[in-house]
Amino acid sequence: MPNAFQTHLGEFHTTRWSIVIGARGQSSADVNASVDSLYRQYLSPLYAYVRRRGYSSHDAQDLTHEFFSRMLEKGWLTSAQPERGRLRTFLLVTLKRFLANEWHRISAEKRGGSSRLVSLQSEEGERLFLADASASSALPDELLFDRNWAMVLMQSTLDHLRHEYARSSRPNDFEVLKSCLTAERGSIDYAMIARELELLPVSARSVVHRFRKRFREIFREEVAGTVAAPDEVDAEMQALILTLGQR
Amino acid sequence: MMDTERTACPRCGDRLTDNLLDGLCARCLGALNFDTLTQVTRVEGTAGRDHQVPTVEELADFFPQLEILSLIGRGGMGVVYKARQKSLHRFVALKLLAPERAGDPSFARRFASEARSLAALNHPHIVAVHDFGEAGGYFYLLMEFVDGVNLRQLMQSRRFSSDEALGIISPVCDALQAAHECGIIHRDVKPENLLIDRNGMVKIADFGISRMIHDTVESPVFGRADADVASQTLAAGTPDYAAPEQGASGASDHRVDIYSLGVVLYEMITGERPDRELIIPPSRRTSIDMRIDDVVLKALQKEPDLRFRTMDEFRRTLDEASGTKLAPDVLPVRKRRATALILSVAVMILALAAWLFWGNYAGSENSYQPQITKEPELKFQSLEDAYQAFEENFTELQEARKVRVVGKADGSAPPADLQKKIEKLEARDHQLRAAIAKMADRTGK
Predict the structure, then answer these.
(1) For residue A2, is pLDDT > 50?
(2) Which of A87, A176, B6, B71 has the lowest CB atom count within 10 Å?
């Protein structure tokens, strides 16, 4: 997946949904920046959903782009109430309403050429759509959306973690340790890891442990950036993990 | 690693083409890392004291310049090994620490600057730092090897008279004063960190390391330090010896060392640490001069402003309370006294060594294994002569040791036979001590 989540500063930016919905006091520049990073991060699951609704890839690109513009223009985000809950559900509900409306037809004439940015993310969205298509079609579109959302967050987590290690004094650790994330606890070859990473054998365990822990922490932060209140994080994490298990 | 030709995940059977994140199966990523949704802070093998340590053989690959000999201590701070530097043929102590910080560049920088300021300290009563670095997943310090025991071990076998306590506390004050003047605060003064070698020389270990290791400043790269490590002790310092202001994250200055040393002194004299709320004056717990009470209680003041302002002040006040005068005309007497104190400590070590040797000891923190050999006897006309000879030899020995560590004052290289010279002086030192002890016994001191 392309690295879709860097702001122009090159730093990682976890969108704080809670900040956005509490944005009445924020400058519009800040709100726009938040919407912008929301767009970059979550465009692909939204695009994939639109595609599943039957639109061509070209139309889907335009529609999702239009959807975000409309959100900004109409202030749908900033006027969101805290009860809106999670960003994931809010975006999907809002998108569905948008698609059901006349609006996108009216703006068809006004549609200009797609920006380069749109096509970059929609490549990813297209990949998700094709994956969904080859998966069991018995799953409702909404669930597929949720699963894609979870994938996006997971990928973002991996990218963030890779970035952290790249800046550490042990940049080679990441590629070797990555495989531990999908290895059963008992089957991790610590001796091999110690050799590959030039560690004392006893260090291997704690290095792996820290890697996994950091992975969990970052994912948690990513999820926390999409809920309105801290006490919702656990439930959202649980829901997303479950979607990954859906076949 | 991952076979890209594979179409199904070996673990869960999911089709991999649709479900890959960075080459990993998305389903397994979810299933294997979030089995409990609370943040998992423990995993088998890394819980608290069960943490395994590298074996001597494993270390050899990472420290080719050293001959690793044995594990000599393990504590909350790190693991210590006895080793020999191949090039210089001298014993050193290799301390491994902070495995949870491996790869953290900001910690590496802080560690380097801390190690450098320690290396610059260069005091006879402070364990010298020779080198530092990062290897095999640990940060390490290469330090002076102290052939002796720590104060905890000494305390386990006896209580101390005020003279004996002075013999140990006084040089510690000098050393801490020197460090404070360089802007270095120890922050973890406790009996385990006060080492006494076979000659009765006191050396302070683990300067400044405590704060650095347990600094819970969030690293931008690696997030917060592992909660397990930080929870072993307070923000810095071991709870019983830490000054009240050390627990808070606020500023604490060199006076925390004064407090900690006060606790150590109290414990040396009375056999127990003071109760933090209501301190029973030492004179009520044991037969000791009441003037000592004032000194100890002042050091133990909760409010830093009410304690001694400096280590020097602490030491001077303690000296006076013990009846030692510093008038110039009695300086030789004081020096004699200091020597006697060193000797008495050395005798304690010998007694302790015998006890340790006969296997009564179970491995404790920072324990060192002393090796004592028997020497032939020397004869002197008088005790006076014996003291004279001892002092001359001792001075020469100290000087030689210093040269071995920091080189000659004029910058030229140490002589090739320095080690042999030191060994000779050490042997003579033993003989002189034995002779004096014997003569002192006979004359009733």
Answers:
(1) no
(2) B6
pTM over 0.80: no
Single out the residue of B267, B259, B274, B263 nearest to residue B311, CA to CA.
B259
Which tokens hold the place of B14? Answer: 């999911």
Alpha-carbon torsion A187, A191, A194, A198, what sign? Answer: negative
Q: Which residues of B touch A173 (CB under 8 A)?
A: 103
Instruction: Read off the tokens for A241.
Output: 């993990």
> Which residues fall within 8 angstroms of residue B332, CB to CB, at 6 or more apart?
none
Choose among B382, B384, B375, B380: nearest CA to B426: B375
Distance CA B31, CA A81 (A): 33
Residue B95 labelled as part of a binding site: yes
Whether residue B31 contacts residue B12, with contact meaning beta carbons closer than 8 Å, is answered with: yes
φ/ψ of residue B96, rounded to 5 = -100, 130
Sign for the pseudo-dihedral over CA of A39, A44, A46, A47 = positive
CA distance linking residue B380 with residue B384, whole number of Å: 9
Q: What is the DSSP letter of B413?
A: P
Q: How far is A205 from chain B (nearest CA, A)?
A: 7
| Domains of chain A: total | 1
DSSP annotation of A180 reads G
Residue given tokens 């991060």 in the structure block: A41
What's the pLDDT tens digit per position in B71-123? 988 876 789 999 999 999 999 999 998 888 887 888 888 888 888 888 888 89
Maximum pairwise Cα distance, chain A: 66
Q: What residues in A contact B37, CB-CB < 8 Å?
A: 234, 237-238
pLDDT < 70 stretches in chain B: 1-6, 17-18, 36-51, 76, 210-238, 247-251, 324-377, 402, 405-409, 411, 437, 440-445
- Domain extent at residue A153: 3-244
Interface contact flag, A178 B34, Cβ < 8 Å: no
Measured in whole angstroms, the distance separating CA B203 from the mean position of its chain's CA atoms is: 8
Helix axes B311-321, B255-270, angle to 10 degrees: 30
- Measured in Å, how far apart are chain B's first and last C-alpha atoms? 76
- Give residue-wise pLDDT tens across range A96-124: 988 888 655 655 555 554 444 445 567 78
What kind and span of H or E run contains A13? Answer: none
By the 8 A CB rule, do B343 and B436 touch?
yes
